[in-house]
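Task: sequence in, structure out. Protein: Alpha/beta hydrolase fold-3 domain-containing protein.
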Amino acid sequence: MVAKIVSPSGRSRRTVGSAVPLGSVASSWIPVMPSTVGESRGPMSRMIVPPPGAGTMSRMSEPISGFDARPDYDPASEGFTPVTTDEGKLRQLVDYLAEHVSAYRDGAPVPWTGSPEEIRAARAAANDRSARLPDAIVHASMLVLGAGVDHTLPFVAFDGAACRIEDFGAGGVPVRVFVPADPTGAVVVAAHGGAWWMGDGTARDGSFGPDCAALAQRSGAVVVDVDMRLAPEHRMPAAAEDLVAAVAWARTAPIPEIAAGAAVVLWGRSSGGHAAFLAAKMLHDADADVTSLALTAPSLDLRGRSTDMLEAIFGHADATDPSVSPALGDASWLPRLHVQTGTEDDTVAGGDVVVAKLQEAGEAATMSEFLATHFVAVPAVQRERITDLARHILDATGTARVLPGEPSGDYDKDAIDRANEESWGR
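Result:
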């Protein structure tokens, strides 16, 4: 099969079969979705194949003369659109999930004022969708972005299966402990997301738990995943109180891989970041500060949320209350803070505000930004987030280990793109 790569300058280069450079997406062109998919444009036509990772292709053929007869040929004149950015690839992935994947598309409104039976049924359905989403993202990434790119999730890439997993009762709070194969002695207490009302059950087993295992393996810290109480049956601050109990338990836990007097990092994702923030404040007020607070896509400013939601979670609808929107309150008491945000995340707010407050005051606060929506990131970005957390944990806890490179190898998209540009004579 003959593949053709067309550079933004209009130059073209033939390659054959596997000679197409993997990952040459930054300089690749793909066709726009036509009204008739797979339309043939004459008896003498050939397949135009984008390099792996370039994205989906909908127009399946192009006349030989289209490129060969005109050295100054402009692909855009024939309806071709370049996908030259990672943002474009993320948008393709999100669009595919919205169109084809029920685990992403078919969310139902939360019955905040429903009966206990309605809440439980809705929670179970939402958890099942959440549990299926990671595998759906991998499958969609292979279809949409190409099989030549490593779409391995963190759990597999970082050998999460090598963790020893044990369930405990932490002062009456159920916790699942992930003990890495090469422990450093540090400990992370983890709070799952789920809009304060879901994220336990199958979602915790199939989505958050695997990331806890990956983080344990990557950082060397023992990760304690807390099965927090959820609203509306248990309004806030019940979840935060469960995290406080888990931190106290972790400091004296019967787990030999946790060092005596170990540094504790409190980590929360999304609404779990909100609960972790409140728990960190409770621990501070009790003179039992954690070493660091790490938050992934935290929901710290709830202004604009519905009255029904706020009342179901907090018992009132005042979104300016710092216990509801911690980003609006005092942040001077915080321990060392690390926040991870998504460039395309329009679901949550407030994490960057808290970091800015601390940095302006000269306090220890850092923020890492990743190409992601609140729910979707390509697997490579998911791995980057876990590695970023691992580096923060190692630094904050004063532990050390050799952080292995990406298991996928020394793949360097930028270097490949530079090589492609040189081969085009640019």
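The chain has three domains: 2-84, 88-145, 154-397.
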